[in-house]
Structure to design on (731 residues):
């Protein structure tokens, strides 16, 4: 690699720390950069100062340059704003996907170009595999940590400039490397949940309350009979069991539908959650359309299921839990040894 | 690090003068006694500190007994604002104050007075903000971003009419290196300075509390500094600051003339070479008499400061944009916002601050490096 310049996005966590260490070891001319995305409260403190400090000190330890880029305005515009907007329309957002789409793999790539870096690396657990049709995203070696789902939208052009050194490793191996070279982040816990929402400061509800008027709603059963109330429809996700304000014994009930216009949540038995097909929009095939027999993932760490895509419908091979509107459906196919992303869609309302 | 580093960030901190380093060493190795003690080593430390009072008294135009040593500009500013507020009344400051003043004033629910496009305090707004309940007006002598020098005499006249009981505090942290504070801040009751802005060490500063005025202590303990600021004296720091002040006062006029010319060449050269470049606080080309000589503050259209600073550092230029937050990220400048600059233009700000050690070669290098860096970013986007 003979000193090829590469910009490594360092969050202050163990994965990106090891990413920087590995690339330096491989002979790249590594510069670390931490994106300051959020200025408000979070579980890692104001401005995530402690994470930036961790990244900076790991960079010092590796003897590489480190910079901080303030992408706060873009984060607000492309991630936080749409997150709030989605919730207020009763749609489930994917903030990590939007952050990757607009910040890490757009704004940062453009910034890298301007600063003279052809390559950008991150510590995501996913692989980039070469196909006859250019590079594609595929699942990482650690099934429990795989992040190909939140990177599914990366184009050929983007992938040609991206390096993901952790794709062939398990998380345990990453931590072993970090411990082996005594990185200060070696035992730092994995990040959880949405980075701009503080779990200790009232969580999602408190966060949304400060930005939008939350809408109380009626909980009805499958026959339309009122059975309870929820303080905020925006916080109800299809499949949810707790916090539906339905009291009494009997079988557990689940949210099976959220209707913002009617201000209603419909609840039903677990069996009511299952469906033969899901409506989709924004269908996209990375290369040639391969609608038959794909495996589909519908949330960041969700299980996968077999399906066939027909028009604007995903037809499940086995009855599948309803997919909340707004969630991404990512389609995979086995190619050689790899589970490769071949397409995606969004669950329709 | 790169072999050639051009330091153009003197408003953030200055190189410590060799004479100051030399003066500090014996305080660490020989006269290390606690200056509050009674024995000979304590007394020698005490004497060294008291000599610094005399130097600062001359520089600030106050009495030696008015000088309260503290840990730096932030502490001096906090002592002035919180101290004055402890006597009751309303506190008032300008919209372009350093956070060390602005944050205390906002915490106290004080009033903020705007500035005009050039960065001068809006005197009509000031008049409107004043009434007899006001206990403190804080206006910085020279701004840390724009370099603009405020007319404290005019401000004091308005205060005498509208808020006769108020003290006038001035944060002279940026000003002291360049202008005669004794004259410019003559009407001020309280004056803050910080050692590292004029060739002294970090972690030491002073608040001049002119006799007749008083501020209650914010740190209490052993009763040092006449009870206004307890804590063992930072004798090496104070002595280093004193030596730096002595050198500064002996050479300031000459330095100002030399650095002022360098700054003009730098600013004019950049404005000429870079389309869409705006010099802040300057309404007609070259009219910079109201700014400190070291300040070259520009905004570039269609540029993001942090990308520009990255390229400049790679080419050996060390500068800054606006204030940095604790994470090290660049933040939009509250100073430019107060002066009415659009967020887009403010996002492309570059603060090149020269100092007593700046050279013609520094300016040559900056003029060679900055225009192509701006051009590159505009061409490639960021």
């Amino acid at each position: 690699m003979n000193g090829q310049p590469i910009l490594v996005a360092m969050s202050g966590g163990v994965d990106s720390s090891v990413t920087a260490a590995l690339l330096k070891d491989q002979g790249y001319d590594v510069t670390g950069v931490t994106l300051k995305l959020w200025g408000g409260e979070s579980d890692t403190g104001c401005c995530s100062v402690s994470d930036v400090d961790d990244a900076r000190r790991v960079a010092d330890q590796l003897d590489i340059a480190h910079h901080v880029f303030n992408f706060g305005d873009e984060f607000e515009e492309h991630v936080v704003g749409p997150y709030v907007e989605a919730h207020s329309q009763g749609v489930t957002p994917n903030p990590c996907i939007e952050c990757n789409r607009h910040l890490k793999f757009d704004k940062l790539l453009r910034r890298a170009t301007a600063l003279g870096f052809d390559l950008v690396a991150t510590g995501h657990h996913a692989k980039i595999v070469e196909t006859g049709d250019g590079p594609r995203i595929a699942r990482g070696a650690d099934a429990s940590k795989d992040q190909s789902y939140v990177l599914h939208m990366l184009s050929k052009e983007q992938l040609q400039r991206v390096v993901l050194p952790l794709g062939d490793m398990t998380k345990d191996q990453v931590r072993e490397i970090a411990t082996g070279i005594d990185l200060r982040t070696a035992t730092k816990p994995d990040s959880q949940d949405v980075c701009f929402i503080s779990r200790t400061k009232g969580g999602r509800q408190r966060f949304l309350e400060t930005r939008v008027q939350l809408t109380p709603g009626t909980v009805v059963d499958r026959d339309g009979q009122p059975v309870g109330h929820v303080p905020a429809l925006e916080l109800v996700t299809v499949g949810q069991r707790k916090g539906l304000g339905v009291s009494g014994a009997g079988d557990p009930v689940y949210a099976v539908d959220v209707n913002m216009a009617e201000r209603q949540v419909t609840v039903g038995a677990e069996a009511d959650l299952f469906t033969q097909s899901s409506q989709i929009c924004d269908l996209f095939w990375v290369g040639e359309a391969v609608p038959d027999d794909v495996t589909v993932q519908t949330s960041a760490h969700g299980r996968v299921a077999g399906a066939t895509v027909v028009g604007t419908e995903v037809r499940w091979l086995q009855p599948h839990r309803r997919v909340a509107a707004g969630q991404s459906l990512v389609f995979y196919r086995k190619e050689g040894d790899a589970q490769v992303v071949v397409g995606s869609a969004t669950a329709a309302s | 690090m790169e072999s050639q580093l051009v330091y153009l960030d003197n408003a953030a901190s200055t190189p410590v003068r060799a004479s100051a380093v030399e003066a500090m060493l014996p305080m660490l190795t020989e006269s290390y006694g606690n200056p509050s003690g009674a024995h000979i080593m304590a007394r020698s430390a005490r004497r060294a500190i008291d000599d610094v009072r005399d130097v600062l008294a001359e520089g600030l135009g106050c009495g030696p007994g008015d000088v309260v040593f503290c840990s730096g500009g932030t502490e001096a500013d906090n002592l002035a604002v919180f101290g004055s507020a402890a006597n009751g009344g309303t506190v008032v400051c300008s919209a372009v104050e350093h956070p060390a003043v602005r944050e205390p004033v906002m915490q106290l629910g004080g009033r903020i007075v705007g500035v005009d496009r050039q960065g001068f305090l809006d005197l009509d707004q000031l008049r409107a903000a004043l009434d007899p309940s006001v206990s403190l007006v804080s206006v910085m002598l020279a701004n840390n971003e724009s370099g603009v020098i405020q007319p404290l005499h005019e401000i004091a006249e308005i205060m005498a009419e509208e808020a006769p009981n108020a003290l006038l505090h001035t944060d002279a942290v940026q000003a002291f290196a360049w202008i005669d504070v004794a004259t410019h801040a003559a009407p001020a009751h309280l004056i803050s300075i910080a050692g590292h802005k004029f060739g002294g060490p970090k972690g030491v500063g002073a608040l001049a509390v002119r006799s007749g005025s008083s501020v209650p202590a914010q740190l209490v303990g052993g009763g040092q500094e006449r009870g206004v600021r307890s804590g063992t004296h930072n004798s090496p720091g104070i002595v280093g600051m004193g030596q730096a002040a002595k050198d500064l006062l002996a050479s300031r006029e000459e330095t100002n003339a030399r650095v002022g010319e360098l700054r003009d060449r730098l600013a004019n050269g950049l404005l000429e070479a870079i389309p869409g470049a705006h010099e802040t606080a300057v309404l007609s080309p070259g009219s910079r008499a109201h700014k400190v000589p070291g300040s070259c503050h520009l905004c570039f259209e269609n540029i993001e400061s942090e990308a520009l600073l990255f390229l400049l550092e790679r080419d050996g230029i060390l500068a800054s944009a606006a204030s940095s937050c604790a994470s090290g990220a660049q933040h939009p400048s509250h100073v430019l916002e107060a002066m009415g600059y659009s967020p887009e233009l403010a996002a492309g700000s570059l603060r090149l601050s020269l100092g007593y050690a700046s050279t013609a070669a520094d300016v040559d290098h900056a003029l060679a490096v900055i225009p192509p860096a701006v051009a590159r970013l505009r061409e490639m986007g960021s």
Observations:
- The mean pLDDT of chain A is 91.
